[in-house]
C-alpha cells in the first residue's frame, strides 16, 4: 500500500508541476503578445477620434500644441473632456479663445501636458514613494500634485484647482492620455 500511495503522490506532484509550468508559459506568451502590440495612433490622432475631446482638440490646434503632440516623444496628457470645458464660465471660455489671448490659452493647455509617459500605475508608485503625494512638472514648468481620494487619483495645480482622472491609461504611439473631469485654469493666467 505504501508503494501505491507514494506512486500516486508522485504522479499528482508531476501533474501539478506540469500544469503550473503550462500556465506560466501561457501567461508569459500572453504578456509578450500584449507588450508587442504597439498603439498606431499618436496622442493627437487619438484625441481627434474621441468625440468627447473636440473642444480640447480645437484648443490644441488654435495654439499649435497639436504639432507638439504629434511628435515621437513621450508625453502624458491630462485631457479635459467636453464636459470639463462646460464647467468653465462662458466669460472664461471667451477670454481663452479670444485671438489676442492665444498665449494664455497655450499656457493653460501646457498645464495639462507632461513630457514623460506616466501610466496610472507609475503615478501610484510615485505616490507610494512620496507618502501619498507625487509631483510632476508640466511643460509649462509648473508642478501638478497627485494624491488619492478614495480610489480616485486627484491632480491639483499650484492654484489649488483639482481634477479627477476619470479614464486612465489610453496608450498611444507617443505617450498616454488620462481623461480628467476639470480644466486647469491657473489664476495667474488672467
From TrEMBL:
The record's section on Gene3D superfamilies has: FAS1 domain
One example of a Gene Ontology biological process annotation: cell adhesion
Listed under GO cellular component are: extracellular matrix; extracellular space
Give start-end ranges for the coiled-coil region(s): none
Tell me which InterPro entries the record gives.
Adhesion/Biosynth-related, FAS1_dom_sf, FAS1_domain
User: What residues does the FAS1 domain cover?
Assistant: 40-184
Pfam families xref list: Fasciclin (PF02469)
What one GO molecular function would you report for this record? cell adhesion molecule binding
Q: What is this protein called?
A: FAS1 domain-containing protein
Q: Which organism is it from?
A: marine sediment metagenome
Q: What is the lineage of its organism?
A: unclassified sequences, metagenomes, ecological metagenomes
Amino acid at each position: 500500500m505504501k508503494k501505491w500511495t507514494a506512486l500516486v503522490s508522485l504522479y499528482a506532484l508531476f501533474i501539478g508541476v506540469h500544469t503550473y509550468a503550462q500556465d506560466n508559459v501561457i501567461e508569459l506568451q500572453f504578456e509578450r503578445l500584449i507588450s508587442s502590440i504597439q498603439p498606431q495612433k499618436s496622442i493627437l490622432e487619438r484625441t481627434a477620434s474621441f468625440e468627447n475631446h473636440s473642444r480640447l482638440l480645437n484648443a490644441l490646434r488654435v495654439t499649435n500644441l497639436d504639432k507638439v503632440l504629434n511628435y515621437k516623444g513621450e508625453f502624458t496628457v491630462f485631457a479635459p473632456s467636453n464636459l470639463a470645458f462646460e464647467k468653465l464660465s462662458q466669460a472664461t471660455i471667451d477670454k481663452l479663445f479670444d485671438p489676442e489671448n492665444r498665449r494664455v490659452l497655450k499656457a493653460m493647455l501646457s498645464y495639462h501636458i507632461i513630457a514623460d509617459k506616466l501610466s496610472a500605475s507609475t503615478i501610484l508608485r510615485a505616490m507610494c514613494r512620496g507618502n501619498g503625494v507625487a509631483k510632476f512638472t508640466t511643460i509649462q514648468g509648473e508642478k501638478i500634485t497627485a494624491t488619492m481620494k478614495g480610489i480616485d487619483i486627484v491632480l491639483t495645480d499650484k492654484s489649488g484647482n483639482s481634477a479627477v482622472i476619470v479614464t486612465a491609461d489610453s496608450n498611444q504611439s507617443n505617450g498616454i492620455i488620462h481623461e480628467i473631469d476639470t480644466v486647469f485654469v491657473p489664476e495667474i493666467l488672467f
